[in-house]
Amino acid sequence: xxxxxxxxxxxxxxxxxxxxxxxxxxxxxxxxxxxxxxxxxxxxxxxxxxxxxxxxxxxxxxxxxxxxxxxxxxxxxxxxxxxxxxxxxxxxxxxxxxxxxxxxxxxxxxxxxxxxxxxxxxxxxxxxxxxxxxxxxxxxxxxxxxxxxxxxxxxxxxxxxxxxxxxxxxxxxxxxxxxxxxxxxxxxxxxxxxxxxxxxxxxxxxxxxxxxxxxxxxxxxxxxxxxxxxxxxxxxxxxxxxxxxxxxx
Length: 249
Fold this sequence. Notes:
This protein has 249 residues and is an alpha+beta fold. It has helices at 28-31, 34-39, 74-87, 131-137, 142-148, 153-156, 169-184, 198-209, 211-215; strands at 10-14, 19-22, 43-46, 54-56, 60-68, 93-95, 99-102, 105-115, 118-126, 223-229, 232-241, 244-248.
């Protein structure tokens, strides 16, 4: 993001194996079964953007649009995703600011980040994710599920393979590249590994894999309340001793 030239848009396609990814401000112990994830050799990652916890495996394809504030256009970026899916015969719809739905169920969640004059928008595309594993690791708030009108995280999501049996990760990758060319009116140029600063990548890797960044501070709260609003969830946690609030977050 920091090195994206002004006026350009980079579409980055990527995957993780057996990984729970939490938002910038989330408490990992509240969002997933940490003990089970560790036992199964899974990974916990915290991203810079906000939003909720998601599960990634090799049946999930992730995308990131990286650009400057002047060029950033959420509707145009989402049109790339929608155009790619529609080119494969999949009827989609946008829902609010964050989700893409098929038959009323979520196939893509999105999150956003801004730093100075640079921005990114990224999200998931569920192709053939192991939803049993997803439900096993994620501990979604009952209030969030109630607000979405579903009984579980598994019932809320849909694998694209259920509506398009022939879809594969490479097939969707190619559809996204074609859609990018169509929406932006020019042929995309592929970036190579040598185009990136390897020393800078090493520094970021050390920061983002550290426990301080991934886990944050685990405070011994004794009381917690949660409410759900149209814009998201709000949780107030307090450490109370002798009737006095000693700490709150």
